Amino acid sequence: MYKQIILAIERAITEGVLIKGDKLPSINTIKNEHSLSRDTVLFAFNELKARGIIRSVVGKGYYVNSENITITKKIFLLFDELNAFKEDLYNAFLSNLGDNIQVDIFFHHFNYDVFSKLIFDNIGGYTHYIIMPANLKNPDVVISKLPSNKVYILDQTSDKLSQYTSIYQNFEKDISTNLNKGLHLIQKYDKIIFLFPEKEPIGLRNGFNLFCEQHSITNELCHSIKDRVLKSGEVYIIPDDRNLILIIKNIKESGLIIGKDIGIISYNDTLLKEIVEGGITTISTDFKQMGKRLAEMVINKEHKQIANPSHFILRNSL
C-alpha cells in the first residue's frame, strides 16, 4: 500500500500535476480518503523524503522538493577529512554505485559538535547514512538517533558501534602484522619511534606496543617532531603526510641518509610515496577496495561487518 502512495505521487510529478513547491495532501487526508493506517502513509512520505523528492515543514506539512523522481537512493556520506587516500575511497565508491543514486558528502574535521550537528540536521533526509566517526568519543550517542538499518560505519569502528553494518580497518592487528613483515629490517636500527598525534586511532598505538613487546624492541611514542634532534639508527613510523614531509626535510638538513641512517615507515599509501626519495615504505589498507566493497554493500543491502585488507609495501626508506 505504501508503494502505491509513492507511485501515485511520482506519477503526479511526472505528469505535471504536482510541481516543485506544491503542498501535498496531509497524512490524515490520504489516510481517511483511502482507508489506510497513518503509519502506512507516513512510511511512504518518509521514503520520498529520504530520496529528496519531498520535504517536511514543521507545523505546515509536506511539499514537493524535487521533480527528479529517478533518484532511487540518496546517501549521506560523512568523512573526517579529505586527503589523497580518502579521495581514492570516495571515487571508488562513486564509480561502483550505478545510476540514479545521489551522494552528498560532508566533513566533521574531528570536531564532535560539527559531527553531531551534521547528523542531527539530516535525520530523515536520506536513504543511507555512511559515517566515518574517526576516534571521536561516544559517536554512538548521536548515531543512535538514526535508523540502525540505514547506517554504515566506515574505516574506524568500536564495540559501541558493533551493531551497525561496517567496513573497517583492524588497526591493532594490521600494524602489528605488517611490522612483523619488516622485522628483519627494523631490527637493524637501534630504536623505533612512533609519531602519534592525538587524532590517530588508538588501535595503532596498541598494535605498535604489542609488536615492540613481542620482539623486545627499544621504542618511543612521541606526539610531535617539533624541535626533535634526529639521530642515526632511528626508524620512524609516520601516520600523517604533513609530518612525513617535515621529517624528510629535517633528515636532509641533518645530512643523514633516508633508508640507511634513518628509516621511515609511512601509513596509507599514495602515488607520491612511490616516488619521493626513491620510495617510502608504507603500511596501508586498500582504500579503492574499501570504496568498491562499500558500494556493493549498499546496492546489495548487505548487513555485516567486514575488515578491509591491509598490506606492507617495502620501498627504499627502510
Structure in a nutshell:
With 318 residues, the protein is an alpha/beta fold.
Walk me through the structure:
By secondary structure, this protein is α/β, with parallel strands linked by helices. It has 12 helices and 14 strands. The protein starts with a helix and ends in a 5-residue tail after the last strand. The model has no long low-confidence stretch (mean pLDDT 93).
Tell me the layout of helices and strands:
Layout: H1 2-14, H2 27-34, H3 38-50, E1 54-57, E2 61-64, E3 73-79, H4 84-95, E4 101-107, H5 112-121, E5 128-131, H6 140-143, E6 151-155, E7 165-168, H7 171-181, H8 183-186, E8 191-195, H9 202-215, E9 219-222, E10 234-238, H10 241-253, E11 262-267, H11 271-275, E12 281-285, H12 287-299, E13 305-307, E14 310-313
Parallel strand pairs: 3-4, 3-5, 5-6, 6-7, 7-13, 8-9, 8-10, 10-11, 11-12
Antiparallel strand pairs: 1-2, 12-14
Spatial order of strands in the largest sheet: 4-3-5-6-7-13
Based on helices, strands and strand pairing, what is the structural class? alpha/beta
Q: Which geometry do the CA atoms define?
A: elongated
Q: What oligomeric state is this?
A: single chain
* Series of H and E elements: HHHEEEHEHEHEEHHEHEEHEHEHEE
The low-pLDDT segments are none
Tell me what portion of residues adopts beta-strand conformation: 15-25%
Q: Which percent range fits the helix content?
A: 25-40%
